[in-house]
Amino acid sequence: MKRIAIIGAGGYAREVAWLLEDISAATNPEAGYATVGFLVSDTSRIGPHDSPILGDFSWLESNHVDALAMGIGTPAARLTLSENLRERFPHIAWPALIHPSVKWQQRTMQVGEGVILCAGSIATVNVRFEPFCMINLSCTIGHEAVIGRGCVLNPTVNISGGVELGSGVLVGTGAQIMQYVKVGNGARIGSGAVVNKDVNADTTVVGIPAKELIKKSPIEAVAATAA
Hints:
The chain is an alpha/beta fold. The chain is built from 3 helices and 23 strands. An 8-stranded mixed sheet has the order 5-8-11-14-17-20-22-23, covered by helices on one side. It has a 6-stranded parallel sheet with strand order 6-9-12-15-18-21, with no helix packed on it. A 5-stranded parallel sheet has the order 7-10-13-16-19, with no helix packed on it. A hairpin with a 4-residue loop joins strand 22 (204-206) and strand 23.
């Protein structure tokens, strides 16, 4: 079995450990994974809900693993840490981790390194998963969709055919993105939103239909309260 360490120690990191167990149970022992533990960037920031850790990333300098898995569900962190760790430890692989229950047409799929596809999800045909994107539980992804580098789709998201997500996009639980919509880098889609038109980079959209969330200035917030 391949020795693998998980980056992160929170709840999602524990879900990745479970994913690895399911992958290993469904394959032959030589192709499976033995999870050695959790690693974090800063051991002083471990919280009460985090798992016991092996240490910080320097642990990898004196201990052998065959692979790493990203157990952090924040797009910006996935992008930054994956880049830093790949540069620091270029000899360690980042395998794509695909739950045995995922339905996908393997011969037309493009899957980058570090991609995670969680249980119950479905991808149809000609879908491209850029490196380090994460598809959480029970999502659906239609034909010719592109899921950009480091994107995170939270549970039960529905992506229609031809949708293009830029890098670092966060899609909230239960959101739906209609066919051929393009979402810019770093955008955030609110939970339950229905997106029927393009979304600019680094913006947040919410609601049905989804509209850009405009934060009020302190003066506007006080005026709205007083009204």
